[in-house]
Amino acid sequence: MERYIKNLEVKLENLTLEQIKDQELINEMKLEISQLKSNESNSEAYIEGLENKLYANEGHAAKLDETITKLEKRLRQRDLEYHELEERLRKAEVDEEKSLLLDDLNVRDKKI
């Protein structure tokens, strides 16, 4: 009988050790699950941040395109104005030359 009790005590001790190992394994798995949930939460926040930045950049790109279009339009307008001024300057120079020639002719006419 004593041997039977000893045998049962050994079995109980072995089962207790297994239970402790199982509990340690369960605790490790719970910790790992908790870390995975935390990582998932962090990843979701990171992804959301990236999506917000992407959305903001898309808005900036649209504004940049709009600004470029406006600046190109202004450039074309100024280019036209520049060419008009150049033409006016040429005409003014021609008119001034004509005036000088007419003055020369008048002076010659007076001499004659």
* Overall spatial form: rod-shaped
Secondary structure tally: strands: 0
The ordered string of helix (H) and strand (E) elements is H
Give Rg in angstroms: 47 Å
Number of domains: 1
What is the first-to-last residue Cα distance?
A: 162 Å
Residue runs with pLDDT of under 50 for 5 or more positions: none
* Overall mean confidence score, pLDDT: 90
Keywords: Coiled coil
Coiled coil: 61-95
Describe it for me?
- It is a single chain.
- The protein is mostly helical.
- It has one domain.
- The protein has 1 helix and no strands.
- The longest helix has 110 residues.
- The radius of gyration is 47 Å and the shape is rod-shaped.
- It starts with a helix and ends with a helix.
- The model has no long low-confidence stretch (mean pLDDT 90).
- Keywords: Coiled coil.
Comma- or semicolon-separated keywords:
coiled coil; rod-shaped
What's the topology here?
Layout: H1 2-111
In short:
With 112 residues, the chain is mainly α. The protein is 98% helix and 0% strand. It has one domain (1-112).
